[in-house]
Amino acid sequence: MGIHSDLVNQTKKYKGELHEFSLSMTQWRKFKTKYKLTWQKTRFDEANHVHIPKERGIYAFTVELSPSKLPQHGYILYVGITGDTSAATLHSRYRQYVANLKKEDGRPAVFFMLKNWSGDLFFNYVPLAGSSVDLSKMEKSLLSAVIPPVNKRDIEATITAAKAAAF
Known about the structure:
36% of the residues lie in helices and 17% in strands. The protein is α+β, with helices and mostly antiparallel strands. The chain has one domain (33-151): GIY-YIG endonuclease (3-Layer(aba) Sandwich). It has a four-stranded antiparallel sheet, sandwiched between helices. The mean pLDDT is 87.
């Protein structure tokens, strides 16, 4: 058993099924990139790691009901990058998340996301080969636009301060 073995149940005692999602329309409209972002996605499952490329890039976890009797929709829960300051790839990062889920460890909010939405969680990614892509800048801009609830840092300071003040 990992350190987070009962985290989901304990969290639900305090929070129920209430989850907040934000979208800053001002920041969303400002989000621009000169790179073509062709998003791909796969259901987050241990067996699907074989589909994830061994390249650097940006990724997002979404929760979606698929298939669903509702119009296609989902929520962006977490945004990250890999390969900006390390040799990590989308593939290796995906495997780390699988390992955190199995060992029941890692960051508590990320573990909660992986465990709580198991079966409805998708790993969306864009491989961005080449070191000319400033992944950190792209990540910060995207984070500030969608303000994913699981991300705790790398959001612009003005948004972080306002979010903290809003309690």
